[in-house]
Amino acid sequence: MRIADTAIPGIKILTPQRHEDERGYFAEVWRQDRFAEAGIPGPFVQDNHALSRRAGTVRGLHYQLPPRAQGKLVRVVRGRVYDVAVDVRRGSPDFGRHVAATLDAAEGNQLWIPPGFAHGYCTLEDDCELLYKVTDFYSPDDEAGILWNDAALAIDWPVGAAWAEISGRDRALPPLAEQTRLFEPGPT
């Protein structure tokens, strides 16, 4: 497993080793001991599977607050997506900054997003499927989000607002500067 740190500490790109032959390949995509050594402790309590039919579909930017904060291990099992994590931890030196990566089913790479980050993605192909493990259960009462194309975030999305397939709910999310539900610094 190759594990690469990103520009924001805690977010990691993981690429499982594939053992290939003429029949196909085998890969370990989650192994608790190796992930814990890399700073990805789990435990994971829920798996999510998402299908987006059209290229240019944007989902996000979503997160959950304590007590139901979620870490996410995201991978694409069909297609390619532009995946984004935005730091929403008030007081963090990286607050408002983001990491973006292209996740590709052909490559098998994954993105680890710890609690305290908003997550979203844009499909780069039709019929993209994502699987992601989360460290806490979905809780609508603890869910929040920020506007996907908030200019202050400077995310270089591969699709413009006029062409993005996005839900009405996600279009109505506030920009980061107007979001009142953010992660607060914990005890020191």
Radius of gyration: 16 Å
**Helix percentage range:** under 10%
CATH architecture: Sandwich
Shape: globular
Give average pLDDT, whole number.
Answer: 95
Count of discrete domains = 1
Question: What distinguishing features does this structure have?
Answer:
188 residues, mainly beta, Jelly Rolls, 6-stranded antiparallel sheet, dTDP-4-dehydrorhamnose 3,5-epimerase activity, isomerase
Account of the protein in words:
Its EC number is 5.1.3.13. It is an enzyme of class 5 (isomerase). The record marks 138 as: Participates in a stacking interaction with the thymidine ring of dTDP-4-oxo-6-deoxyglucose. One of its GO terms (molecular function) is dTDP-4-dehydrorhamnose 3,5-epimerase activity. One of its GO terms (cellular component) is cytosol. This protein is mainly β and 188 residues long. It has a single domain, classed as Sandwich (Jelly Rolls). It contains two helices and 13 strands, in the order ββββαβββββββββα. The protein has helices spanning 32-37, 168-171; strands spanning 2-5, 12-15, 18-21, 24-27, 46-52, 58-64, 72-78, 80-87, 98-104, 110-113, 117-123, 128-134, 143-145. Strands 1-2-10-7-12-5 form a six-stranded antiparallel beta sheet, with no helix packed on it. The longest helix is centred in the N-terminal third of the chain and has 6 residues, at 32-37.
